[in-house]
């Protein structure tokens, strides 16, 4: 579903801040794979997400999504196949618009937007059904402005908006990192439920090791722009936070450093 | 203190206010919906007036001339949008550049700095010999119709994308919308409405002048801000009505000021002062309330021994 071949990305070429953010990255996700990505500071996790979503274009290498070469496509063109949830709960929704209008914006992803009514009666009832999945009672607040929702509610809505049109690829960019522990747990459980039920091909960056181990069928670890560890489904079932840290230290010969790393949920 | 013709002047103000409301819708679309402070307005208002006046005086059907005026204004707006999005020029500067360019373009269109329409058949001529309130009624209906069309448009899929562009551009890009395009559409549409207002004003007062649009953006802003402050802005439908009424209210304020022997040359100063007050008052009120709140809370905490 996702094929990344020999992707390199260089920032600030020719200056003192020159930095190779991605070094010959090869990554292949099969249909229905749910891959979690961890790594220390500056490992290239965010750059990888941006290269896949088209926010930045790779200097070398190519990206295929659902069999199409999207390497040269810009973000808004690629978004047809990609659902994305950002770290900032405010980033994924439009605050001055209603819940129903936000869903209508997401519903039109990958379609030609025309002069038909965005929130029709028919769509409203389907939006209500979708919102029920979240279990937050948002289905009763369709015409409430999103700016009035809590961070957790907004992130849950973002998650729904990213997934309910069944994109080929779901990108989760530390999407629970900015929430308090209770809400982060709520979003984590929703993510697990939604991805399981829709079997979306998913790539999730996280700095929560426990979350990285709990979710998904595959785990990769990045460091200095490379994928240094790739753990498949069978091995992942036996994995613990301690084993993961030991593995990192063995590979790197030094301690895992991430200012925000969380070992447990 | 009041002149004998006070009510006459008030009626005139409502008439002009309803025409200006169409311009205010345009300013609302850029300033509020797109979050794009577009100064093209000062130029495109005159463009609308100029094209309509030229068309009508050269024997064109007034309806067609007005339509051409809209298209002219829309093109000016599209150019501003292109300068901003494709040229990556700051929004304010793009508008100012277009405004300056339009001054020369408007003179080219008109051929001279003033065109009179006194002896020409205009779109509004049939209304002048009717009963006293005919014009207010007809223009009220026209302004309301444009308001309703704008409401409907902002609820379509394109309209939603336009609103999201001003609200959270990053998010709507991740949902597949090319924000460059929505900005260009929005600014174009806005200036088409502004030019329509310019065309109607020229036909209403019987002439088009190169200076007609000067200060128009501030009048538009005044209408939007006064309207929102007085009539509320919870929903789109409510806000567009507020903008319409705000435009009329602004004209009434000006009329009262003129009745109070204020010099008409002071009007622009008055407008600027109104906008400054309307913009700063809510902020000052909020700051005062916040201070009072925190003081009250601090006193409350101190009474509990301060160990909270």
Write the layout of secondary structure elements.
The complex is a heterodimer of chains A (265) and B (308).
Chain A: E1 2-11, E2 19-29, E3 34-39, H1 45-53, E4 60-65, E5 68-69, H2 75-78, E6 82-85, H3 99-107, H4 121-134, H5 151-163, E7 169-173, H6 181-198, E8 202-205, H7 209-214, E9 218-223, E10 226-231, H8 233-237, H9 241-252
Parallel strand pairs in A: 3-8, 3-9, 6-7, 7-8
Antiparallel strand pairs in A: 1-2, 1-4, 4-5, 9-10
Chain B: H1 6-34, H2 41-57, H3 62-85, H4 91-110, E1 114-116, H5 125-128, H6 134-153, H7 157-167, H8 169-174, H9 179-205, E2 207-209, H10 216-231, H11 236-259, H12 267-303
Antiparallel strand pairs in B: 1-2
Oligomeric status: heterodimer
CATH level-two architecture of chain A: 3-Layer(aba) Sandwich
Q: Structural class of the helices, strands and pairings of chain A?
A: alpha/beta
In terms of DSSP E residues, the strand content of chain A is 15-25%
Query: What's the CATH H-level homologous superfamily of chain A?
Result: P-loop containing nucleotide triphosphate hydrolases
Structural class of chain B: mainly alpha
CATH class of chain A: Alpha Beta
Number of helices of chain B: 12
Written description of the protein model:
The complex is a heterodimer of chains A (265) and B (308). Chain A has 265 residues and is of the alpha/beta class. Chain A contains nine helices and ten strands. The longest helix of chain A is centred in the last third of the chain and has 18 residues, at 181-198. Chain A is globular. Chain B has 308 residues and is mainly α. Chain B folds into two domains: 6-262, ABC transporter involved in vitamin B12 uptake, BtuC, CATH 1.10.3470; 264-308. In chain B, helix 1 packs parallel to helix 6 (134-153) and helix 3 runs antiparallel to helix 4. The mean pLDDT of chain B is 92. Chain A binds chain B through residues 53, 75-77, 79-80, 82, 84, 86, 90-97, 101, 104-106, 108-110, 113-119, 161, and chain B through 153, 155-161, 163-164, 167-168, 170-179.
